[in-house]
Amino acid sequence: MSTPPPPATGRLAALVAGVAILVAACTGTAPDDALTTSTTEAPAAAPAPDGPANPGVSDDRVLFGQSAAFSGPAQALGHAMRLGIEAAFHEQNQAGGVHGRMLELVTLDDRYEPGFAFANTRDLIAKERVFALIGEVGTPTSRSAVPLAESRAVPFVAPFTGAGFLRDPDLNSVVNLRASYAQETEHMVERLTADLGVTRVAVMYQNDSFGQSGLNGVTEALDRRGLQPVATWYYERNSSAVKAAVFHIADSQPEAVIFIGAYQPVAKAIKLLRMDVDPVFMAVSFVGSNALATELGDDAPGVYVTQVVPIPDDADTPAVAEYRAALAAIDPDAAPGFASLEGYLAGRLAIVALDTCGAELTRKCFLGAFTELQSIDLSGVSLHYGPDDNQGSDEVLLTVINDEGRFVPAANLGDTQ
After folding, report:
1. Which residues are CB-neighbours of 125 under 8 A, at least 6 positions away?
2. Whole-model pTM?
3. Tens digit of pLDDT for each residue in 209-219?
4. Domains of the chain (ranges plus CATH)?
């Protein structure tokens, strides 16, 4: 098994990110150069006090901020999340906004790197003075951003990650939409063992807090069944250097391979593995389902992905029909997908809290709305919150790419093998 250096976690991660930013600034290469779509000023030293005004709120608008990957190997995820959020906001603005306020989104590119996410989050809070943060993409980036949001009680809404640390009941500012990676990996292992009797499972994971979170989920799910991975190997974030991982995993002759990674390295690994072995391939939702199918091309059919939102062409779910209409309204050429649907639902979730607060909008009221409402229905997508539960959905759906390149539900793995 692989033994990479453990990723920095918790407050240590935030400290490391902050040190990286200061070092970069001292050497004349500020980490947020060319990262922003809204400003090119030098980074602020620290968030300034709010002052008498409610940050990000005026008589006619509410300003949200998003730091996500808009360049680099994971950029499809950031673009899709932003598109979905913007579709939800545009839909609401066309209906008059929320209590007369239009919803706006400012975005900064963090390249899926923690140091840039730290700098962006600081600037969104201190310089852009956003009311709330929404749609952060990734575990390592969220890990560096959350301490800043927590320290200023800035809402951190619907990050695109299922990391366990974001479900900590002691967090006061984080509102999760989706199921956790632990739930996704448990569902995978349950289906593999119950439907197919699989006992030999290998894992390829990203060498950071995201990969470790997913790897822990697989290992714990296997352990509950008296099993352990036959091989685990990693690749580095924002790279597609997977040959070493492929070699070690193929050598273990697995019956199934679970991927905790992004679409480009996962697609490359699947293509290489198929030259030597023929296991069941599964990936967690963060992989970026639509981007993965595109990257795989002819190798896509038969690959499984767990999903935490409905299938984007599910006509039986009203929220999906509304999403498709909202998406077409802002970009008629955009193809519906899982990540942009999640972004749309994130936007809708924020709108529910804004509406609950009424005209006297504050961050405290916004965050309190989720505990107060507890059950939220987003046109057929049910979410449930509570005093010690900041995760709205526990739903996990296993899908498979069919011969037409479409994602369809996988009711029983035995029927598709």
Report:
1. 47, 55, 65, 133, 148, 149, 152, 154
2. 0.87
3. 999 999 999 99
4. 11-178+321-384 (3.40.50.2300), 181-307+397-416 (3.40.50.2300)
